[in-house]
Amino acid sequence: MPTLREIQNAMHRSLLHQDNGTMHRYIVSDHLAAGERLNIYRNTHIGSLSAVLRLAFPAVCKLVGEDFFDAAAAVFIDSHPPIGAYLYEYGAEFPAFVEGFEPAAGLRYLPDAAALEWAVHRAVHAPDIQPLDRSRLIEVAPIDQGRIAFVPHPSVGLLHLAYPAHDIWQAVLDGDDEAMAAVDLREDAKWVLVERYDGEVRVSYLSDDAAWFAARLFAGKPLQMALESGGDDAPVYLADHLAHERFIDLKLLDPKIIH
Amino acid sequence: MKRPPLTPSLAARGPIPAEAGIGLRFQHHQDVVDSKPAVPWFEVHTENYMGGGPPLRYLDAIRTDYPISLHGVGLSLGSTDGLDPTHLERVHQTVERLEPGLVSEHLAWCVTDGVCVVDLLPLPMTEEALNVVSRHIDQVQTALKRAILIENPSTYLQFAHSPIPEWEFMAAVAQRTGCGILCDVNNIFVSASNHGWSPSEYLAALPPKAIGEIHLAGHSVRNVGDGRTIRVDDHGSRVIPEVWELYAEALHRFGPVPTLIEWDNNVPGLDVLMGEAAKAAAVIKNALPEDGHADAA
Predict the structure, then answer these.
(1) pLDDT tens across B111-135, in order?
(2) B263 CB contacts (<8 Å, ≥6 apart)?
(3) Quick check: B117 and A15 CB within 8 A?
(4) Do A116 and A173 contact (CB within 8 A), yes or no?
(5) Hey, is the C-beta of B133 within 8 angstroms of any chain A C-beta?
(6) Phi, psi for residue B149 in degrees, rounded to 5
(7) Minimum mean pLDDT range among A74-88, A245-259, B10-24, B192-206
(8) Region for residue A141 given its phi and psi (left: phi exceeds 0; alpha: psi -120 to 50; beta: otherwise)
(9) Which residues 237-256 of A are in CB contact (within 8 Å) with B?
(10) What is the per-residue pLDDT for A21?
(11) What pLDDT was estimated at residue B7?
(12) Residue B190 in this model has a pLDDT that exceeds 70
């Protein structure tokens, strides 16, 4: 008689790796074969996760069509089973998967569109966390301000997109064929900031200076290092980050680590 | 975590009424906020409101007008891995945040070795499984500081070694842990049809005092070739007449119980769901004693 652990391992091998050998012995085969019964669960698993991915990547799905998307999703799901039951976190590796997915190689902008959609999805579902109380900045002595490290809000994402994925995303979701036709794939690469502010997800472009500054702050680098890379307008960028509540905490880094 | 005291309106609202509620889906958020339909209560999937942002803002608005029940799908109560502490803490935070009238989960598992199959997988009905599930329900009830309800599953296979009838297993879980039972009448019908059980025998074995809620939903009959079929609980259609009959039988045994219309795939307009809820309300009314009040005994 198998233990529960043995049964659960065998069922996972069957459902996730199509290895039915052991599982067949554990269940009753009658007018339906064991494999047919197990397929019902396997199909629900794949169908549910495909639906999760379609919801997280609606523009990618529209760009390639539902059949193509589902076929790609099935390959992704096979190689990336979820590690938790909180499915808003499922799909983080999908943009990288799309980039390496040979059948979609003709759509060069697709990985960028997927990366943007994942950032938007994260921003939509990020937990509600109180922003940094700005009075805490004033409490830091001027001599220590350079070693402030900020903790970004979990909704904030910064992307460097080689293709105008934002324009494509907007046009596809709006069903605006004219805007889609006007997209120029030869445009320069752009920095895009994604965030949820005042309950709404916002996507905006950043200059190179602003992006370098933001990238350092979001990575928890010391403020001094960010200011040195942010150009003359760095103080303005900092004020903008604070005004839009992009940080939830700050700490003072050890001077020994900084230098 | 410190949280503000209950507002008078929340405190006065009380638990989920013994009336017919509706499973709330994202596509109906705006409609419910705008039109405030005559629905006695809503149930939501716990996992859909564990994040922040727009979904939670809608639910915050909706729960000022309606009692809310939280129905979880991801705790994997039957898993030999043990409970995922991160997921349990998220459930805990969500319960603290939303102050639901009822909290429920499934007699099922999905996680092994940290990897999740996205379905409610069946358990062999053994003493070992009973111990595992009971231990995990104890853990959840301790963490949440409240009793939860456990839902009977729809199943599509039977284990070769599964000596305890599912209805006895459900009753034993309730008896051991003090949890309530979420009696999914459609699931009883689906599993009974698939395995040749008697749905009436199933209902008769459940302890009436443990029944805290009933679920009703549609299911499909899948053709697997050569005229062979299996019933699959896909929540994508109306409740079928046989399940309405079984529901009436359930209420006859249990008395009026909060009842939910579930519809998770091919979700229709709110009016269709309200039509199904009205049918359930009529059955509940018939189950009331003649003075119109539920028998407290």
Answers:
(1) 999 999 999 999 999 999 999 999 9
(2) B23, B25, B217, B218, B235, B236, B237, B272, B273, B276
(3) yes
(4) no
(5) no
(6) -105, 145
(7) B10-24
(8) beta
(9) none
(10) 87
(11) 37
(12) yes
Question: CB of B233 within 8 A of CB of B217?
Answer: yes
Q: What is the pLDDT of residues B138-177, one digit of tens each?
A: 999 999 999 999 999 999 999 999 999 999 999 999 999 9
Determine contact: B230 vs chain A, CB below 8 A: yes
Residues of B with Cβ-Cβ distance to A41 under 8 angstroms = 117, 119, 121, 156
Say what the pLDDT of residue B292 is. Answer: 52
Instruction: State whether B56 and A128 contact (CB < 8 Å).
Output: yes
Q: What is the ipTM of this complex?
A: 0.91
Low-confidence ranges of chain A (pLDDT < 70): 258-259
Q: Contact B160/A26, CB-based, under 8 Å?
A: yes
Specify the DSSP class assigned to residue A108.
Answer: T
Q: Between residues 138 and 167 of chain B, which touch chain A (CB distance below 8 Å)?
A: 156-161
Query: What are the extents of the domains in chain A?
Result: 1-107, 130-259
CATH number (2.40.128.20, 3.40.50.720, 3.20.20.150, 3.40.309.10) of B8-214 reads 3.20.20.150
Q: What's the pLDDT at A259?
A: 58
Work out the percent of chain B whose per-residue pLDDT is above 70: 93
Q: What pLDDT score does B291 carry?
A: 56
Which residues of chain A neighbour B78 with C-beta distances below 8 Å? 4
Chain B positions touching A81 (Cβ under 8 A) are 115-117
The pLDDT score that the predictor gives to residue B3 is 35
A33 vs chain B: nearest CA distance in angstroms? 10
